[in-house]
Design brief:
single chain, 148 residues, alpha+beta, 6-stranded mixed beta sheet, 37% strand
Length: 148
């Protein structure tokens, strides 16, 4: 595949393609593509009572707030990964299921099954709602070691 073909394929504004490109960028640590995937006024919601929970308003808060806070709880010297397991799209809505894994700064393993509902308009992510096991997130990445 030529560079032009790769660029044409990856630059599609179709909602499914935008979201898949975003996930590829997350996995690769491609900050420019992550930034460019979000609309200026995009929002991100994560449930529970965690440091990443709540609604994050605007691209800057989504990336430098939500994502940065999540990644700050991971050990950067250990493997951090994600794998998409399902993608469903209808119109501007895209539902993605994925597995993510890492080691927390706590030293404990993290392996999560996630679902995210994305809204994409004009080639940019305008909204995301993520659903996951928040108790596992807290046990693996936040809570102090249980007393034995």
């Amino acid at each position: 595949m030529t560079t032009a073909e790769r660029t044409e394929r990856t630059e599609s504004d179709e909602p499914r393609d935008v979201v898949l490109r975003y996930f590829e960028a997350l996995a690769a640590g491609d900050q420019e593509t992550i930034w460019n995937s979000w609309a200026d006024d995009g929002t991100c919601w994560y449930g529970g009572d965690l440091p990443i929970s709540g609604t994050w308003q605007g691209r800057d808060q989504v990336i430098n707030g939500f994502l940065a806070t999540a990644f700050a709880h991971l050990d950067p010297d250990r493997e951090i990964g994600l794998k998409i397991t399902n993608v469903f799209g209808e119109g501007e809505q895209v539902l993605v299921e994925w597995d993510s894994w890492a080691t927390g700064r706590t030293g404990r393993p993290y392996h999560e099954h996630n679902i995210g509902v994305f809204t994409v308009r004009a080639g940019k992510i305008t909204g995301m709602r993520e659903y996951a096991d928040t108790q596992h997130w807290e046990r693996a990445l936040v809570a102090p070691d249980p007393v034995r």
